[in-house]
Design a protein that fits this description.
Elements (H helix, E strand, L loop, with lengths): L8 E6 L2 E6 L24 E6 L6 H4 L24 E5 L15 H8 L18 H9 L8 E4 L23 H9 L15 H15 L1 H6 L3 H24 L24 H20 L5 E5 L16 H7 L10 H22 L2 E2 L2 E2 L4 E6 L15 E5 L9 E4 L6 H10 L23
Parallel strand pairs: 3-6, 3-9, 4-11, 5-6
Antiparallel strand pairs: 1-2, 4-10, 7-8, 9-10
Helix pairs in contact: 4-8, 5-7, 8-10
């Protein structure tokens, strides 16, 4: 028998500091199908993420002309061409306002991610009537991970996040790669492949304190009014999630052979120029991809910019959002040239994330194969804040549960059909999703 097994790590030193690098999923570690750990039979986990860019698209330059598998990418999506067999492009799926106002740069993203159009909020700060899709998925697939989900934003503003619990509880974004590295791979990180595990006594103390708070919850809830009960229920939900995270840290982590602990990143300038934001995206997603591979989390949300996008070119003061409203449409080309630069390049950045996930081998496939990533924006044409044919692209296969490589037209159906289909593909026991005119029980059969 080989001396190598799934708990081996390569050991060395750099500048006097000990370094460990975990081995990838080698065939000898896996079952005969290459889809589960031979020792435990545990399947390679499925991951889910949402990836957001602000200020929409130019429809004629974005959506393919052909429906089905025989389609060609247009100019604004050409960066995704190498992943044609790994992506599904959705067109013709609408966020239906259902009598609610069109809250600019807010109704679209919340409608797509919650199945419900909000009645207040907007401009990046608002209220969601239901949990966003990533939170629902995390409740189902995040057991056994340190972080129920991770959120990152690329323009230096932690408030830029479209991951929300019910009400207005926003899951704040990490914006600094140094801080994210310390959070992921700092003192509390337990190498899943080291074969060694020592519970932190401080964590055990915290857990007992939180448990005592939890024990007194019912008595407190009985003595307050309805509004306070709602606030306390939200608070104790957060406490329970912390307890679950602490409980995970008191158990030896499951092996994750694709895990390789990265070097700590250097400090980088936070900013809203395109150059700063894309550099930040690169640093943050490097860490996030390894967090997925190391089973620190299985759910993530990336915001390239705010919905009211403040991205701008270096040396220029006018940002994308202003351009979408103020720049004239070129009469020959039929679109706003300066604004379109950001929209087209956004797909290049999305493709960079897919390349990173594709590069991580897991069994007979890759991290991308074992994931579903929903890329979307908050409007179609930002100049008019249109919510018809909201841009939505799904990448990955969820471990073979999703039939990719298609362009699917919704013909005016609600975007909730996409969210429902994602939940069902991930094994969630959901028969319908959404409210009012956005409610649906019709999954998209072409992809499942």
């Amino acid at each position: 028998m080989s001396r190598w097994n799934r708990r081996n790590v390569l050991r060395g030193a750099v500048n006097g500091a000990a370094v460990t690098v975990a081995l990838p999923f080698l065939d000898c570690f896996l079952d005969g199908n290459g889809e589960a750990l031979a020792a435990t039979g545990a399947p390679i986990p499925t991951r889910f993420g949402t990836w957001f860019w602000g200020c929409g698209i130019n429809e004629k330059r974005f959506y393919p002309d052909q429906v089905g598998k025989d389609f060609a990418f247009k100019t604004e999506t050409k960066a995704l061409a190498p992943f044609k067999e790994r992506v599904t492009v959705f067109s013709g799926f609408n966020v239906i306002l259902d009598g609610q106002p069109n809250l600019t740069h807010w109704s679209g993203i919340m409608g797509a991610l919650t199945g419900t159009t909000p009645n207040r909020g907007g401009n990046g700060v608002g209220t969601s009537l239901a949990p966003t899709l990533d939170c629902l998925v995390a409740d189902h697939i995040a057991a056994g991970t340190r972080f129920k989900s991770l959120q990152v934003a690329c323009t230096g503003q932690s408030s830029v996040s479209y991951s929300m619990r019910a009400g207005n509880t926003v899951n704040s974004s990490e914006v600094d790669p140094v801080a994210l590295y310390k959070r992921l791979f700092g003192p509390e990180f337990q190498d899943p492949n080291s074969g060694k595990f020592t519970p932190d006594p401080g964590i055990m103390l915290q857990q007992s304190v939180l448990s005592s708070v939890k024990d007194s919850r019912d008595e407190l809830m009985r003595g307050v009014g309805a509004a306070d009960r709602a606030r306390l229920d939200q608070y104790f939900t957060s406490v329970r999630e912390v307890e679950q995270q602490l409980a995970v840290q008191l158990q030896p982590p499951a092996p994750a052979e694709a895990c390789a602990i990265p070097k700590a990143p250097a400090a980088v300038e936070l900013g809203t120029t395109w150059e700063d934001a894309t550099k930040m995206h690169d640093r943050l997603t490097d860490l996030m991809v390894m967090a997925l591979a190391c089973n620190q989390t299985r759910v993530f949300h990336v915001a390239l910019s705010a919905a009211v996008s403040n991205l701008r070119k270096a040396g220029q003061s006018v940002a994308l959002h202003e351009l979408t409203h103020e720049e004239p449409i070129d009469p020959k080309l039929g679109y706003q040239v300066e604004a379109t630069y950001f929209l087209e390049q956004s797909m290049d950045v999305f493709a960079s994330l897919l390349r990173k996930m594709e590069a991580v081998r897991e069994g007979t496939g890759t991290l991308l194969d074992h994931s579903l990533i929903l890329g979307l924006s908050e409007s179609n044409l930002a100049k008019l804040h249109t919510l018809e044919s909201l841009p939505m692209i799904v990448a990955g296969t969820a471990g073979g549960k999703w039939k990719q490589g298609q362009h699917i037209s919704g013909k005016g159906d609600t975007t909730s059909r996409v969210g429902l289909t994602i939940q069902q593909a991930l094994g969630m026991p959901v028969g319908s999703w959404g409210t009012g005119a956005n409610a649906t029980s019709r999954a998209i059969s072409e992809v499942t």
